[in-house]
Amino acid sequence: xxxxxxxxxxxxxxxxxxxxxxxxxxxxxxxxxxxxxxxxxxxxxxxxxxxxxxxxxxxxxxxxxxxxxxxxxxxxxxxxxxxxxxxxxxxxxxxxxxxxxxxxxxxxxxxxxxxxxxxxxxxxxxxxxxxxxxxxxxxxxxxxxxxxxxxxxxxxxxxxxxxxxxxxxxxxxxxxxxxxxxxxxxxxxxxxxxxxxxxxxxxxxxxxxxxxxxxxxxxxxxxxxxxxxxxxxxxxxxxxxxxxxxxxxxxxxxxxxxxxxxxxxxxxxxxxxxxxxxxxxxxxxxxxxxxxxxxxxxxxxxxxxxxxxxxxxxxxxxxxxxxxxxxxxxxxxxxxxxxxxxxxxxxxxxxxxxxxxxxxxxxxxxxxxxxxxxxxxxxxxxxxxxxxxxxxxxxxxxxxxxxxxxxxxxxxxxxxxxxxxxxxxxxxxx
Length: 430
Ligand code: PMP
What we know:
Layout: H1 4-14, E1 38-42, E2 45-48, E3 53-56, H2 71-82, H3 92-104, E4 110-114, H4 117-132, E5 136-141, H5 157-161, H6 172-176, E6 178-182, H7 186-196, E7 200-205, H8 221-232, E8 235-239, H9 251-256, E9 262-265, E10 276-280, H10 282-285, H11 304-319, H12 322-343, E11 350-354, E12 357-361, H13 370-374, H14 378-390, E13 393-394, E14 403-404, H15 411-427
Parallel strand pairs: 3-13, 5-6, 5-7, 7-8, 8-9
Antiparallel strand pairs: 1-2, 2-3, 4-10, 9-10, 11-12, 12-14
Helix pairs in contact: 2-11, 3-11, 7-8, 12-15, 14-15
The chain binds 4'-deoxy-4'-aminopyridoxal-5'-phosphate.
Cofactor: pyridoxal 5'-phosphate
Subunit structure: Homodimer.
Pathway: Porphyrin-containing compound metabolism; protoporphyrin-IX biosynthesis; 5-aminolevulinate from L-glutamyl-tRNA(Glu): step 2/2
């Protein structure tokens, strides 16, 4: 595959952008090689600067659930742009978005729009601290909640991909307020709550983890967190930046039948524009300014172009709930096909899948937490990633990321992917 223009662009980018990218994992640092620079996308396909076509399993890291440049979403964005791209004043559209979200997620009483998942999680933590009057938070090893200081302790995603143990610039004071447990280890959380419950403002968790590959919660894990939070007056925050509006209308809360106190959103909620949100129970959200004194604000929050993209994307999902079933069926089809394709080699592997989230770890053991994810053979992953990319299949360039399916994918695309996986395995040296 000729990627000469991407090579040239990557060199040029590095003289003006740190590492040539505006978000670290895009640089392919851990898998090596030159990132492909994208020039356009439509439906399930990305096109790079050299006009190569790829089947996209990143979907902009989640948002593009309907496929790229979906007609209704593009039309709505274009129509709004003519009426200005930002007012910094309230609009009816923001009420429409909030009401739509509330109708899709019944336990959200109040919701505040922000511009990224990081902002959403950072703000939710502040609200939890303000509400409880406590300082510490508990997060899970390998979960990623954005790049706010308090989340960078034992974080997944790019922090794990680049194997960064301690992030310079995050003060010891902030780190000391972040306690961690292994994902799925309810006993550890119980012990920690017994000693630190009186200091814990929040437990924040990815209900289905997607930042160490895709990792499923064990039965009873979230139920256990819910009851510990009730017992110790801790705010349970479901970080649904990945899972929100992707797994079901009501996200993981609906699928797992757990009511979190606060929930954070990003990705799908903005239909591909920079949007995040945090919301939840009225008595907690009433802490947020101007109702309460937990200050939080944003120049571009509720931006009309972003809101119209989100509103149209969410409306399509709301009015066509069969999309979730279709997406899941496609993902299971892919999983079954990959299972067969990868079995043609001796290399052990594990495929984890939930709804339209899926990932492959080259491991002989089940992958249920960060330690098991990190002990997979990531040298094999690198080779697999490049072998797939060369065959026009665009996977996340890290085993510490989930793949996301979009609904524009056809059976032919999935078959091509499965075939590419079988061919790729022939090249891989363990
Ligand atoms: N939470 C989760 C679960 C995420 O996956 C991410 C980003 N991948 C974030 C928060 C941060 O979102 P953003 O990149 O929009 O700041």
